[in-house]
Design brief:
Helix 3 runs antiparallel to helix 16, helix 5 runs antiparallel to helix 6 and helix 6 crosses helix 7. Helices cover 38% and strands 20% of the residues. The chain starts with a strand and ends with a strand. By secondary structure, it is an alpha+beta fold.
Length: 503
């Protein structure tokens, strides 16, 4: 059976034998009636490419990546950044500001503490503005720097490339620049490798959970028996298993399959965004350089495939901009090493943009790089204004269920309401509630237990307002101002409209 590609880029098509041609397994010319001929003359099908995905072989099996290591100048900078970030990731849950964790996302208590400030569920505008600010920041950074976050700062990349892959290289005998395994580790070494992965996954899982439960509670869980906190233990165990699965098995597929960031490239990148790119005009036609005449006829790329061997996502950067590229710059370091050996200029692969690769002028200033900072500045300004108007406590008057008013005596009416208090301060507070105006209205607190609140707590206080009928006789309602003051002297005024019958 012969294969004939339709062109240099299209998949190969199957050329079918004629009925009179002999096929493998057919002892003689059977006229096309034997089973071998029948199988060979089925409708033509397209053969898959060599790699359907960078981590998937043509037959559907997993392609395990063992990228080589190029220890160039960019890799050394990445390593420094990675170690600093690992230290920062671990330290953040332990740091305190104003007596609170620097970052703590307590989902069960519905409290988010960021930079020492606690956001409650009632802070919907602040949370919304914060999320908008995060998305705009991501879009702005990507428009300028491309996927630098993915290759230089993402925890998945940092831990995978600078913690777990070095372990793999040590066990496989490829410490340094090796890519292919030099030995098949014996069973005891494989078990030891998994054991090291498990211990590191446990440490990472506990660090990750500290962001959500706090270091104090996490320390208590670690020091006590799992039977005293079974759900917490299951959460820790599940997180550890998830970490182990990710770094031992899923690995780079998290970036290629699970993470949506790469798929947002088409929206957030433009033709001037920073990417890692291959200069085709300079590199093509690629091929080995043996003679002087041959050198002049070919580009600078010697087709050594070092850029492919070092890529942690298994792509060929010479195929152009691809979703799988995470801007890790390993191909730049590898190519520069080769260029230095053959006496050519460096940066055949380099940080560039799509416009620059096509010979068009680049530049930082353009519509989106101007609009994104303006939008971000507006969002940040509004956020700070809203944050500055937040009180030490929240108070809201809610009308009680039932009749809008009750007639207590001739000429005397009563309205029932519920006062919702939220203590936003860091200390226990007691609250004093009274009527500021009009003076004819009297206030009775039906249950005073909710007037003393711990930090972050909420209470509903039932209140009765009594007033003479003439306040609502003309319009059926009247405005009442309720004055609320906490122990620290913070004062809130609430406007509430009492209801009554007209004359």
């Amino acid at each position: 059976m012969n294969t004939t590609p339709t062109d240099s880029t299209s998949p190969a098509r199957v050329t079918l034998p004629t009925a009179s041609a002999a096929v493998p397994g057919c002892g003689s010319d059977c006229g096309g009636k034997c089973g071998n001929h029948a199988a060979a003359t089925k409708p033509a099908m397209l053969r898959p490419e060599e790699h359907v995905l960078s981590t998937l072989e043509a037959d559907g099996s997993r392609r395990w990546l063992r990228p080589s290591l190029s220890t160039g100048s960019l890799w050394r900078k990445r390593r420094f950044v990675a170690y600093v970030l690992i230290a920062v990731f671990v330290a953040i849950p332990h740091l305190r500001l104003n007596g609170k964790p620097l970052v703590m996302l307590d989902i069960t208590a519905r409290e988010f503490t960021i930079l020492g400030h606690t956001f409650l569920p009632t802070d919907t505008p602040l949370l919304a503005l914060g999320m908008i600010g995060v998305f705009v920041s991501i879009a702005a950074i990507t428009a300028v720097g491309g996927r630098l976050w993915c290759g230089w700062a993402c925890p998945q990349t940092v831990y995978m490339e600078f913690l777990f892959r070095p372990i793999d290289r040590w066990f496989e005998g490829t410490v340094g620049r090796g890519g292919k395994a030099k030995r098949d580790p014996p069973p005891w070494m494989k078990v030891l490798r998994i054991g090291i992965y498990l211990v590191l996954s446990m440490l990472l899982a506990h660090t990750f959970l500290a962001y959500f439960v706090g270091t104090e509670r996490l320390s208590q869980w670690i020091q006590s028996s799992p039977t005293q906190h079974p759900m917490a233990f299951l959460v820790m165990a599940g997180t550890t298993v998830a970490m182990l699965f990710d770094f031992l098995f899923f690995r780079e597929q998290l970036c290629l399959i699970a993470c949506p960031y790469g798929r947002f490239q088409s929206v957030m990148l433009d033709r001037r965004s920073l990417i890692v790119g291959y200069d085709q005009k300079r590199g093509e036609p690629r091929g080995k350089k043996s003679k002087n005449a041959d050198r002049a006829a070919k580009g600078d790329c010697v087709d050594c495939k070092r850029c492919v061997a070092v890529c942690p996502t298994g792509i060929d950067i010479r195929d152009g901009l691809q979703m799988e590229c995470i801007n890790c710059t390993q191909c730049i370091d590898a190519c520069n090493e080769v260029m230095a050996k053959i006496g050519r200029e460096p940066n055949l692969i380099t940080f560039t943009s799509q416009d620059q690769l096509e010979g068009k002028p680049g530049g930082l200033l353009r519509a989106r790089t101007i609009l994104y900072p303006i939008v971000l500045a507006v969002v940040l300004g509004v956020f700070l204004v809203v944050l500055s108007t937040k009180y030490a406590f929240d108070a809201r008057a809610l009308r009680a269920a039932g009749n809008p008013y009750t007639r207590l005596a001739p000429g005397v009416l009563q309205n029932s309401l519920r006062l919702r208090l939220v203590n936003r301060s860091d200390e226990q507070q007691s609250y004093d509630v009274n009527i500021r105006e009009p003076r004819e209205v009297t206030l009775e607190i039906l249950d005073k237990t909710g007037l003393t609140l711990e930090s972050g707590k909420t209470a509903i206080v039932p209140i009765a307002l009594r007033f003479p009928h003439h306040l609502t006789a003309s319009t059926g309602s009247a405005e009442v101002i309720v004055n609320i003051e906490d122990t620290a002297g913070n004062v809130r005024e609430l406007e509430y409209r009492v209801l009554g019958p007209r004359r």
